[in-house]
Amino acid sequence: MSAPTAPDAAAWEASLYDWHNDHRLRRQQADIAYWLTVTEEDERLLVLGAGTGRVAVPLAEHRHRSVTAVDASLARLRRMPRAPGLTPVCADMRELPLHGPFDAAVVPYSTLQLLLTAPDRHRALTEAARVLRPGAYIHIDVSGNFDARAATDWHLALAEPCPAAGATVEEWERQTPMSDHVLIEKSFRIGEQVLTEVQERWAYLGSLRTEAALDRAGFDLTGTDHGYGAEASPHRLIHHGRRRH
Ligand SMILES: C[S@@+](CC[C@H](N)C(=O)[O-])C[C@H]1O[C@@H](n2cnc3c(N)ncnc32)[C@H](O)[C@@H]1O
């Protein structure tokens, strides 16, 4: 990739998202094996917040089943490897351009926490209920890690070679706890050159009230467990909701 211009900012963000994950989230690879097991019986899968396909692609490659991978970021979807049965869809999970029916939905890696208000989360869960067949499951991966974040000033969070940039990239980060979410600002740089700047806002687990939210959207909560996070990331919870008939 060449030096960034404004239209390239989204492409840089998507590229650096993968670079970040490669270096910071190695322990989270366990979620892929977990999702394969949880969805073993399901033929038509919906992944909400599929990003660049870290979870959606292996789910599709497993038995070449049908996986619809929804993400709001076209730049991230463009980086998603193609696979038989995999359909990337650029859409807001609060307004799905889909009919279904799907046999199961996976909301991986804290994606629901990117929806900051209860009405937004209700819209997303209601849309999921609309496109899932009766009796189908939604599996929602959330984290309590955000709730405990302390305020920090800008600090160097990561510095690693980045092949797409052809240089070592520095990721600078600042965290600001807010009333119901944490603001995480990131600045990706090569020396003094800023490649792109990103703001993420993650709702606290304590704000989600997932059981009530699932109930209002038409799901029964059938269980909550630590899923793949039991050893490496005990702050993780997986909520399993079954769409009511
Ligand atoms: C934490 S990432 C997870 C990506 C990928 N599943 C993974 O595990 O690496 C959350 C994803 O949700 C997407 N997203 C955030 N809000 C969304 C919305 N309202 N509708 C659809 N996708 C959304 C973001 O673009 C991002 O790619």
Could you explain the architecture of this structure?
The protein has 245 residues and is α/β, with parallel strands linked by helices. The chain has a domain at 24-146 and 205-243: Vaccinia Virus protein VP39 (Rossmann fold, 3-Layer(aba) Sandwich). It is 25% helix and 36% strand. The strands form two sheets. The chain has a seven-stranded mixed sheet with strand order 3-2-1-4-5-11-10. A four-stranded antiparallel sheet has the order 6-7-8-9. Helix 5 (118-131) crosses helix 7. S-adenosylmethionine binds at residues 21, 49-51, 54-55, 70-73, 76, 92-94, 108-111, 114.
Name the ligand types. Answer: S-adenosylmethionine
Low-confidence stretches: 1-7
Give me the CATH architecture of the domain at 24-146 and 205-243, please: 3-Layer(aba) Sandwich
The name of the CATH superfamily of the domain at 24-146 and 205-243 reads Vaccinia Virus protein VP39
Query: Quaternary arrangement of the chains shown?
Result: single chain
In the CATH hierarchy, the third-tier topology of the domain at 24-146 and 205-243 is known as Rossmann fold
Give the DSSP E fraction (strand runs of 2 or more residues): 35-45%
- Give the total of beta strands: 11
Return Rg in Å: 18 Å
Helical segment tally? 7
Quick one: CATH class of the domain at 24-146 and 205-243?
Answer: Alpha Beta
Q: What is the overall pLDDT average?
A: 92
C-alpha end-to-end distance: 50 Å
Side by side, the strands of the main sheet go: 3-2-1-4-5-11-10
Summing up helix and strand content along with how strands pair, one would put the structural category as alpha/beta
